[in-house]
Write a structure and sequence with these properties.
By secondary structure, this protein is mainly alpha-helical. The protein has 19 helices and no strands.
């Protein structure tokens, strides 16, 4: 008392407050430790449960006060959806967790709902994708795509596709990126023009995701958008679009001659001028796929020029591919002379590779 009798009221209150804060911190630490022990015990108990004990165990944890326990439960419920006997009760519990006051619990529950092909679940996801929480909307987009891939996926696609299309206009970047990725995973032709439109998006992450998705589903109908997208300043976007171009060309039953010439010209320009070596190497590969003998000189120069070995290798392979497909012995002999003169160390490889490509498969 003698040490504190001259303290002002303010100093006395500050000291009391500091003591109470220290006690509160200690109690919170003890509470966290207790909760961690409880979660560990729940995990151990779950691992020992028999098949008939799981659903009652889940039901007993539905209203648990610890959000971390409820989060654990959402993971177990999502796993339980894989078992026919658990599917309906587990799905209904996940539906209830999609209204949980904690956002992360809601998000995990919504992700789990993608595995449950139920009408009530689909309707709930269509509602959630319009909710206020960004992370939950993104999770709903992924789960909706999973719904469209399951049983009766074609019927669900009628509802899922417009919902994902609307998500492309979401103000949150996370939702737009997720929706674009999910559209690509669906693999439906209707998604192609939607993704091609995203190549003009102001955010690099969206353009990159759209380009990567188009690598899986692009068709020749969006060739114009792909060619414009090759001017993108981001390397990842350009690489993705080159992959989409390859897919579109290889899947096309027929390509207009003008379009083919434009493609060949653009690939040649990219090979010569693009600032990124990976992009140039990829364009060389594409020239090998749909180029002509008129591009042999360009590919040869790129193959023997000093620089990035990726460009040299891909240009060399494309050069051999076009030459072998020509089956023009006179042209091959002309290039044999050039190779012997300008790159004698490559001549044996040149002849062996050509022979291997031109021999019929046995």
């Amino acid at each position: 008392f003698d040490e504190r009798k001259n303290l002002s009221s303010e100093a006395w209150l500050e000291e009391r407050l500091a003591q109470r804060n220290a006690k509160l911190t200690r109690l919170e630490g003890e509470l966290d430790s207790s909760r961690n022990r409880n979660r560990t015990l729940y995990q151990q108990l779950y691992s020992r449960l028999g098949p008939t004990e799981k659903i009652p165990f889940f039901q007993g944890l539905l209203d648990h006060e610890d959000p971390a326990v409820r989060l654990l439960l959402t993971g177990w419920l999502a796993e339980a959806l894989g078992e026919e006997s658990y599917r309906k009760p587990a799905g209904e519990m996940l539906l209830s967790f999609s209204r949980d006051p904690i956002e992360e619990v809601r998000r995990q529950a919504v992700l789990g709902l993608g595995r449950w092909n139920d009408k009530a679940c689909l309707n709930r996801l269509l509602l959630i994708i319009q909710s206020d929480q960004t992370a939950v909307r993104a999770a709903a987009a992924r789960s909706l795509a999973m719904q469209a891939k399951g049983n009766d996926g074609a019927a669900r696609m009628v509802l899922v596709l417009p919902a994902l299309q609307n998500a492309l206009s979401d103000p949150a970047l996370e939702v737009v990126v997720e929706a674009a990725e999910d559209l690509g995973s669906l693999g439906v032709p209707a998604a192609v023009p939607l993704l091609a439109g995203l190549l003009k998006h102001k955010e690099v992450a969206v353009r990159k995701t759209a380009a990567q998705a188009l690598e899986r589903i692009a068709d020749i109908a969006v060739l114009e958008e792909l060619l414009v997208g090759l001017e993108d300043p981001d390397v990842g976007v350009r690489l993705g679009i080159l992959g989409a171009v390859s897919r579109a060309v290889n899947q096309a039953k027929a390509i207009k001659e003008d379009d083919k010439l434009r493609l060949q010209s653009r690939m040649e320009i990219i090979l010569l001028k693009d600032p990124d070596a990976g992009v140039r190497a990829r364009s060389a590969t594409l020239l090998g796929e749909f180029g002509t003998v008129s591009h042999l000189a360009t590919l040869w120069k790129a193959a023997v020029a000093e620089g990035d070995p990726r460009i040299q290798e891909k240009s060399w392979l494309a050069f051999l591919e076009i030459l072998s497909k020509s089956k023009d012995l006179k042209l091959i002999n002309e290039w044999n002379v050039i190779v012997r003169k300008e790159a004698p160390l490559r001549r044996v490889n040149f002849l062996v590779e050509l022979l291997g490509k031109m021999q019929p498969a046995t």
